[in-house]
Amino acid sequence: MKRDRRLTSFLKHKLGRVGLVCLAVLYFGAIFADFIAPYGMKDSNELAAYAAPTTLHWIHEGRFIGPFVYAKRQSRNPDTFRLEYREDESVAYPLRFFVKGSPYKLFGLINVDIHLFGLGDAKLIIEADEGSGEEARTHAVPLNIWGGDQFGRDVFSRILHGSRVSLSAGLIGTALSVVIGAIVGAISGYFGGVLDTLIQRFIEILRSFPRIPLWLALAVIIPPTWPSTYLYFGIVIVLSFIGWMGVARVVRGMALSLREKEYVLAAKSAGVKPFKIIRAHIIPNVASYLIVVSTLSVPGMILGESTISFLGLGIKEPMTSWGLLLKQAQSISAIQSYPWLMLPGLFIMIAVLSFNFVGDAFRDALDPNGTVEKLEA
Q1: In the predicted model, what is the mean pLDDT of residues 142-148?
Q2: What is the 3 state secondary structure string of 328-353?
Q3: Which of 15, 130, 137, 234 has its C-alpha lying 20 to 30 A from 208's C-alpha?
Q4: How many whole angstroms separate alpha carbon 30 and alpha carbon 143?
Q5: Where are the domains of the chain?
Q6: CATH topology of domain 2-31+157-366
């Protein structure tokens, strides 16, 4: 009955339901990014550099032929020196589903080259200039539904691939910080005394440092020559090293109360070892609160990874993340000329808000009396 009431309370939270749906879509896209994205993470096309989002058409020369795109001609504006594109409406290139493209490994195991949608074999047209005798690549057929970046890479595909790093870093970093915080907080609250005082003073010293400078200081320690995978785990460890302190304070406050309960005192009297009591009685009784704290901590982890990568101290090429993608839009001129480069920031905002909504719903369902907020204060 209690579980049913909690589930009902969660489902009644409208924003919580919206956040849960958004997160489901985001993580589904991250898991199947290779299949959904029309291009691979490293695929580039210099003829699509800073290409505007591709417009889908449905009617060609008065006939309905389904979704298609026109090829684009690339030219440079003599006044602004910006790359500009105009559609060549002479030929329509239909959008196809389940087409062959860049090979990838599905779930890292199966070699596949099928993508959800794309243009099939209509990749690039080479035209010869009249009388030149040489080929001039002036005619491209890119499918960039959210535009292209400075290297002609598809922004939509890059956002999908980048979501794997940003979303997984939030979950893994939060999981590590919760485990560390739960263990340290339970030990601090259960034993009390000098050990509790030392742990709490250490936490207060760490919490006194501004978060972003501390992130950057720790990120600088990671050697930039490391492979991308090592850098990823290094950033996750940096984020979890800072995130455990709030969890430890919450668990410590609850452990102070739980250690006086009858079943804990009975276990002590029976000669049960302290760490077994912590594992069997303290941690399980704070599990519901750890779920709430975990859900509310993930947005901070996502923002932390994005901040470090945006400042150039996090994820490096050829890997990508939302923060690294957003780095291309750090100048006013880039935002004004190529506003689609800001799209990764929109996804960061959606993910953060969704986790906050779900966290609020969990808190209302699992902690209706606001115990976590009181302990954090």
Answers
A1: 83
A2: HHCCHHHHHHCHHHHHHHHHHHHHHH
A3: 234
A4: 20
A5: 2-31+157-366, 46-151
A6: MetI-like fold (1.10.3720)
